[in-house]
Design a protein that fits this description.
Layout (H helix, E strand, L loop, with lengths): L9 H10 L3 H5 L4 H16 L1 H13 L15 H39 L5 H39 L21 H7 L4 H37 L5 H13 L2 H11 L6 H8 L15 H29 L3 H9 L4 H29 L2 H7 L9 H4 L7 H12 L2 H24 L2 H4 L4
Helix pairs in contact: 1-5, 3-5, 4-5, 5-6, 6-18, 7-8, 8-12, 8-14, 9-12, 10-15, 12-14, 14-18, 17-18
Length: 439
Amino acid sequence: MHIETDGTSRKKVVGTACAFMGLSHILYLKDYVKGILFAVVEVAFLCLLPVTIKKLIGLVTLGSPQPDIPVKLRDNSMFMLIDGILFLAIIAVFVAVYVISVRSAEKSYNEYCRTKRFSSQHISVKDMANNAFPLLGMSPCVLMLLVFVVVPLLFSIAVAFTNYSIGHIPPNNTVDWVGLQNFKDLLGGNNTWSIGFARIAIWTLVWAVLSTFTCYFGGLLVAVQLKESGIKFSNVFRFIFILPYAVPSVITMLVWKNLLNGTYGTINRTLQAWGILANGQVIPWLTNPTMAQIMCIVINLWAGFGYFMMLSMGTMTAISSDLYEAAKIDGASGPQILRSITLPLVLYQTMPLIIMSFTHNINNFGIIYFLTGGSPTVADSTVTSAGGTDILVTWIYNLTVTLQRYNYASVIAVLIFIVLAPFAVYQFMHTKAYKEGEV
């Protein structure tokens, strides 16, 4: 079919490309290889369309109760949810390929208008191979991210809008969409669940802030002392201070859990032997909620300051000695050099690491779980299964393993993502290290 070379046929070419993938390449642009490949993709999708529609219907309904048939043959709502999300991903990939085909047709027509002739099949295939090579090289990674990251993430988000819990476990029972009801249960009203969520969310934020800044500034303080005070055998001290970070945290936390045990812990027994505590008197290191929270922060400081000490010392080593010499010539004192040169340069280099450490501590499962297990119990622990030191991520574990409240656990995971991801991205993008600006 004939097309004009003055650009007046652009709407016809683009419209035909939108009507069926690859059709413009075959009818107007004489690019048969590329057109056939695009057409094969759409034909394959059309052949898969009945299955796609069935899976999407299953995604909407999540199955129906079938008490009269064997359990193995009943609708499994979770499988239907996963299949529906997978096919949504397939549709998204198909739409992306469709857009590529339309843009390819428009680009080929623009080239035809410029050269006044069609490209040969050899040149077309060579050009397609060159353009497709990056896509083919990245496609395995993209597909793996889609299947193993995006789909599970969407599944976790979708569960937050269902009643997937101990009373609705497929295939014995079906799961239903409940909209925002789970969010209302945790965020609205004065019920036990919302009170427990507010308590744990506040403690999680306090824990993340204090554990991050105590470790950072504790490590920075030790690094400054080792570097500036001229302590002999500083390498030995560095080795000693890094040991708590080098030892696996599971072992460290279990050791501290035994040391701080109120009944037979070494610390209480030692204080009793020294006469500081009377016989039978103990300090409730891990059994009093407030004391247990303080000990979590202190033990995390003991285990984590060495990491920031090494980072700070490495950064300070990289600072040019000319800056210090110039400052001393100008009459600057040691504290002034520290405040005006060392600290700004160290903060400039390590600010992204502070942000990463904060986001890590929000989800720091190991410290809390292996040190206190979330204990001690508080007023709402019987209902929510959350102790006085539980943070959101350990509460998610209890909700899934102990209470089988998968819907509430998913709501909490979604809220963590909503709050944490924009904060981390915003803070990271506004650091000077990211902008590569001047200090």
